Request: fold
Amino acid sequence: MAEKVRRVLLPAAFWLAVWWLCALLVGKELILPSPWAVCQALAKHVGEGSFWHALTGSLGRVWAGFLAGTVLGTFLAWVTVRWRWGETLLSPALRAVRTVPVVSFILMLYFALPTGQIPVAVSALMVLPVAWRSARQGMEAANPGLLELADHYRLGPWRTLRTVRLPAALPALSAGWETALGLAWKSGVAAEVLCQPKWAAGSGLQAAKATLDTAGVAAWTVAIVAISLAMEGILKICLRRWRGGVEG
Reply:
Protein backbone atom coordinates (compact mmCIF):
# COMPACT_ATOMS: atom_id res chain seq x y z
CA MET A 1 0.00 0.00 0.00
CA ALA A 2 2.78 2.42 0.96
CA GLU A 3 4.57 1.62 -2.29
CA LYS A 4 1.45 2.44 -4.33
CA VAL A 5 0.99 5.74 -2.50
CA ARG A 6 4.64 6.59 -3.12
CA ARG A 7 4.28 5.86 -6.82
CA VAL A 8 1.38 8.31 -7.03
CA LEU A 9 2.54 11.08 -4.69
CA LEU A 10 6.17 11.38 -5.77
CA PRO A 11 5.47 11.98 -9.49
CA ALA A 12 2.61 14.33 -8.60
CA ALA A 13 4.83 16.34 -6.24
CA PHE A 14 7.61 16.47 -8.84
CA TRP A 15 5.40 17.79 -11.65
CA LEU A 16 3.66 20.27 -9.36
CA ALA A 17 7.08 21.62 -8.45
CA VAL A 18 8.00 21.86 -12.15
CA TRP A 19 4.72 23.65 -12.85
CA TRP A 20 5.24 26.08 -9.97
CA LEU A 21 8.83 26.80 -11.06
CA CYS A 22 7.78 27.41 -14.68
CA ALA A 23 5.01 29.75 -13.51
CA LEU A 24 7.57 31.71 -11.48
CA LEU A 25 9.91 31.97 -14.46
CA VAL A 26 7.15 33.09 -16.81
CA GLY A 27 5.77 35.53 -14.24
CA LYS A 28 2.47 36.12 -16.04
CA GLU A 29 -0.75 34.51 -14.85
CA LEU A 30 -2.34 35.09 -18.26
CA ILE A 31 0.23 32.83 -19.93
CA LEU A 32 0.85 30.24 -17.22
CA PRO A 33 -1.10 30.41 -13.95
CA SER A 34 0.48 29.00 -10.82
CA PRO A 35 -0.86 25.86 -9.14
CA TRP A 36 -2.17 28.04 -6.31
CA ALA A 37 -4.12 30.26 -8.73
CA VAL A 38 -5.64 27.20 -10.36
CA CYS A 39 -6.57 25.77 -6.96
CA GLN A 40 -8.28 29.04 -6.06
CA ALA A 41 -10.23 29.04 -9.33
CA LEU A 42 -11.20 25.40 -8.83
CA ALA A 43 -12.31 26.05 -5.24
CA LYS A 44 -14.46 28.92 -6.46
CA HIS A 45 -16.13 26.74 -9.11
CA VAL A 46 -16.68 23.85 -6.71
CA GLY A 47 -18.94 26.07 -4.62
CA GLU A 48 -21.14 26.87 -7.62
CA GLY A 49 -24.10 24.68 -8.55
CA SER A 50 -23.68 25.49 -12.25
CA PHE A 51 -20.22 23.90 -12.16
CA TRP A 52 -21.62 20.56 -11.04
CA HIS A 53 -24.52 20.80 -13.49
CA ALA A 54 -22.01 21.34 -16.30
CA LEU A 55 -19.83 18.39 -15.27
CA THR A 56 -22.88 16.16 -14.89
CA GLY A 57 -24.13 17.19 -18.33
CA SER A 58 -20.77 16.41 -19.93
CA LEU A 59 -20.58 13.09 -18.08
CA GLY A 60 -23.99 12.08 -19.40
CA ARG A 61 -23.15 13.02 -22.99
CA VAL A 62 -19.75 11.32 -23.02
CA TRP A 63 -21.09 8.20 -21.35
CA ALA A 64 -24.00 7.99 -23.81
CA GLY A 65 -21.63 8.39 -26.75
CA PHE A 66 -19.24 5.82 -25.33
CA LEU A 67 -21.98 3.23 -24.81
CA ALA A 68 -23.44 3.84 -28.27
CA GLY A 69 -20.03 3.54 -29.92
CA THR A 70 -19.01 0.38 -28.06
CA VAL A 71 -22.32 -1.42 -28.61
CA LEU A 72 -22.44 -0.54 -32.31
CA GLY A 73 -18.74 -1.25 -32.80
CA THR A 74 -19.03 -4.67 -31.15
CA PHE A 75 -22.07 -5.53 -33.26
CA LEU A 76 -20.33 -4.46 -36.49
CA ALA A 77 -17.27 -6.47 -35.48
CA TRP A 78 -19.46 -9.55 -35.16
CA VAL A 79 -20.92 -8.83 -38.61
CA THR A 80 -17.47 -8.51 -40.19
CA VAL A 81 -16.24 -11.69 -38.51
CA ARG A 82 -19.30 -13.76 -39.38
CA TRP A 83 -19.82 -12.67 -43.00
CA ARG A 84 -17.12 -11.88 -45.53
CA TRP A 85 -19.26 -9.25 -47.24
CA GLY A 86 -19.45 -7.42 -43.92
CA GLU A 87 -15.68 -6.98 -43.87
CA THR A 88 -15.71 -5.83 -47.49
CA LEU A 89 -18.43 -3.23 -46.97
CA LEU A 90 -17.75 -1.96 -43.46
CA SER A 91 -13.98 -2.02 -43.11
CA PRO A 92 -13.23 0.93 -45.49
CA ALA A 93 -15.93 3.10 -43.91
CA LEU A 94 -14.78 2.44 -40.34
CA ARG A 95 -11.16 3.09 -41.24
CA ALA A 96 -12.25 6.37 -42.82
CA VAL A 97 -14.08 7.37 -39.63
CA ARG A 98 -10.86 6.75 -37.70
CA THR A 99 -8.84 9.08 -39.94
CA VAL A 100 -11.29 11.99 -40.36
CA PRO A 101 -10.44 14.90 -38.00
CA VAL A 102 -12.86 15.26 -35.11
CA VAL A 103 -13.43 18.92 -36.01
CA SER A 104 -14.81 17.87 -39.39
CA PHE A 105 -17.43 15.69 -37.74
CA ILE A 106 -18.35 18.47 -35.31
CA LEU A 107 -18.85 20.98 -38.12
CA MET A 108 -20.86 18.57 -40.29
CA LEU A 109 -23.11 17.50 -37.42
CA TYR A 110 -23.63 21.13 -36.43
CA PHE A 111 -26.10 21.49 -39.30
CA ALA A 112 -27.96 18.25 -38.61
CA LEU A 113 -28.34 17.88 -34.83
CA PRO A 114 -29.27 20.02 -31.82
CA THR A 115 -26.21 21.35 -29.99
CA GLY A 116 -26.80 19.08 -27.00
CA GLN A 117 -26.68 15.95 -29.16
CA ILE A 118 -23.56 16.78 -31.17
CA PRO A 119 -21.08 15.81 -28.40
CA VAL A 120 -22.89 12.46 -28.00
CA ALA A 121 -22.68 11.72 -31.72
CA VAL A 122 -19.06 12.83 -31.98
CA SER A 123 -18.02 10.71 -28.98
CA ALA A 124 -19.80 7.70 -30.47
CA LEU A 125 -18.07 8.19 -33.82
CA MET A 126 -14.63 8.40 -32.20
CA VAL A 127 -15.29 5.31 -30.10
CA LEU A 128 -16.81 3.27 -32.95
CA PRO A 129 -13.66 2.31 -34.94
CA VAL A 130 -11.67 1.55 -31.78
CA ALA A 131 -14.41 -0.68 -30.38
CA TRP A 132 -14.87 -2.35 -33.75
CA ARG A 133 -11.19 -3.11 -34.22
CA SER A 134 -10.63 -4.50 -30.73
CA ALA A 135 -13.81 -6.60 -30.84
CA ARG A 136 -13.00 -7.96 -34.28
CA GLN A 137 -9.48 -8.95 -33.28
CA GLY A 138 -10.78 -10.63 -30.14
CA MET A 139 -13.58 -12.50 -31.90
CA GLU A 140 -11.22 -13.73 -34.59
CA ALA A 141 -9.08 -15.26 -31.82
CA ALA A 142 -11.93 -17.52 -30.67
CA ASN A 143 -11.07 -21.21 -30.40
CA PRO A 144 -11.94 -22.89 -33.74
CA GLY A 145 -12.81 -26.10 -31.91
CA LEU A 146 -15.40 -24.31 -29.78
CA LEU A 147 -16.85 -22.67 -32.88
CA GLU A 148 -17.17 -26.02 -34.59
CA LEU A 149 -18.80 -27.43 -31.47
CA ALA A 150 -21.27 -24.55 -31.36
CA ASP A 151 -22.06 -25.10 -35.03
CA HIS A 152 -22.46 -28.84 -34.47
CA TYR A 153 -25.00 -28.31 -31.69
CA ARG A 154 -26.71 -25.54 -33.70
CA LEU A 155 -26.46 -22.92 -31.00
CA GLY A 156 -27.24 -20.17 -33.48
CA PRO A 157 -25.36 -16.94 -34.14
CA TRP A 158 -26.46 -15.08 -31.02
CA ARG A 159 -25.74 -17.87 -28.54
CA THR A 160 -22.39 -18.52 -30.24
CA LEU A 161 -21.58 -14.83 -29.90
CA ARG A 162 -22.49 -14.82 -26.22
CA THR A 163 -20.89 -18.10 -25.21
CA VAL A 164 -17.84 -18.34 -27.50
CA ARG A 165 -16.86 -15.16 -29.31
CA LEU A 166 -17.41 -12.53 -26.60
CA PRO A 167 -15.51 -14.47 -23.89
CA ALA A 168 -12.62 -14.89 -26.34
CA ALA A 169 -12.72 -11.17 -27.15
CA LEU A 170 -12.72 -9.94 -23.55
CA PRO A 171 -8.97 -9.17 -23.25
CA ALA A 172 -9.00 -7.19 -26.50
CA LEU A 173 -12.28 -5.52 -25.60
CA SER A 174 -10.91 -4.40 -22.23
CA ALA A 175 -7.88 -2.71 -23.80
CA GLY A 176 -9.92 -1.18 -26.60
CA TRP A 177 -12.68 0.18 -24.39
CA GLU A 178 -10.22 1.81 -21.99
CA THR A 179 -8.63 3.63 -24.93
CA ALA A 180 -12.04 4.46 -26.38
CA LEU A 181 -13.23 6.08 -23.15
CA GLY A 182 -10.34 8.55 -23.21
CA LEU A 183 -11.13 9.38 -26.84
CA ALA A 184 -14.80 9.86 -25.95
CA TRP A 185 -13.88 12.46 -23.32
CA LYS A 186 -11.48 14.34 -25.59
CA SER A 187 -13.81 14.46 -28.56
CA GLY A 188 -16.96 15.08 -26.51
CA VAL A 189 -15.52 18.06 -24.63
CA ALA A 190 -14.02 19.42 -27.88
CA ALA A 191 -17.49 19.29 -29.43
CA GLU A 192 -18.92 21.11 -26.41
CA VAL A 193 -16.32 23.87 -26.76
CA LEU A 194 -17.41 24.52 -30.34
CA CYS A 195 -21.17 23.94 -29.95
CA GLN A 196 -21.55 25.32 -26.40
CA PRO A 197 -24.62 23.41 -25.22
CA LYS A 198 -26.21 24.33 -21.91
CA TRP A 199 -24.68 22.68 -18.84
CA ALA A 200 -21.42 21.49 -20.39
CA ALA A 201 -17.81 21.51 -19.24
CA GLY A 202 -16.76 22.51 -22.74
CA SER A 203 -19.01 25.57 -22.51
CA GLY A 204 -17.31 26.45 -19.21
CA LEU A 205 -13.92 26.18 -20.89
CA GLN A 206 -15.05 28.44 -23.71
CA ALA A 207 -16.48 31.01 -21.26
CA ALA A 208 -13.22 31.08 -19.29
CA LYS A 209 -11.22 31.49 -22.49
CA ALA A 210 -13.46 34.33 -23.69
CA THR A 211 -12.74 36.29 -20.48
CA LEU A 212 -8.98 35.52 -20.63
CA ASP A 213 -9.30 33.53 -17.41
CA THR A 214 -6.35 31.18 -17.87
CA ALA A 215 -6.61 29.87 -14.33
CA GLY A 216 -10.28 29.11 -14.95
CA VAL A 217 -9.43 27.19 -18.13
CA ALA A 218 -6.88 25.16 -16.16
CA ALA A 219 -9.38 24.56 -13.34
CA TRP A 220 -12.01 23.24 -15.75
CA THR A 221 -9.34 21.05 -17.35
CA VAL A 222 -8.32 19.60 -13.99
CA ALA A 223 -11.96 18.78 -13.19
CA ILE A 224 -12.49 17.13 -16.59
CA VAL A 225 -9.32 15.04 -16.26
CA ALA A 226 -10.28 13.98 -12.73
CA ILE A 227 -13.72 12.76 -13.84
CA SER A 228 -12.23 11.03 -16.87
CA LEU A 229 -9.72 9.15 -14.70
CA ALA A 230 -12.47 8.21 -12.25
CA MET A 231 -14.59 6.82 -15.08
CA GLU A 232 -11.64 4.85 -16.43
CA GLY A 233 -11.12 3.36 -12.97
CA ILE A 234 -14.79 2.37 -12.72
CA LEU A 235 -14.65 0.86 -16.21
CA LYS A 236 -11.57 -1.19 -15.30
CA ILE A 237 -13.29 -2.55 -12.19
CA CYS A 238 -16.41 -3.50 -14.19
CA LEU A 239 -14.37 -5.19 -16.90
CA ARG A 240 -12.29 -7.05 -14.32
CA ARG A 241 -15.45 -8.37 -12.67
CA TRP A 242 -16.93 -9.30 -16.04
CA ARG A 243 -13.81 -11.22 -16.99
CA GLY A 244 -13.75 -12.90 -13.59
CA GLY A 245 -17.38 -13.96 -13.95
CA VAL A 246 -16.83 -15.33 -17.45
CA GLU A 247 -13.59 -17.16 -16.59
CA GLY A 248 -15.04 -18.45 -13.33
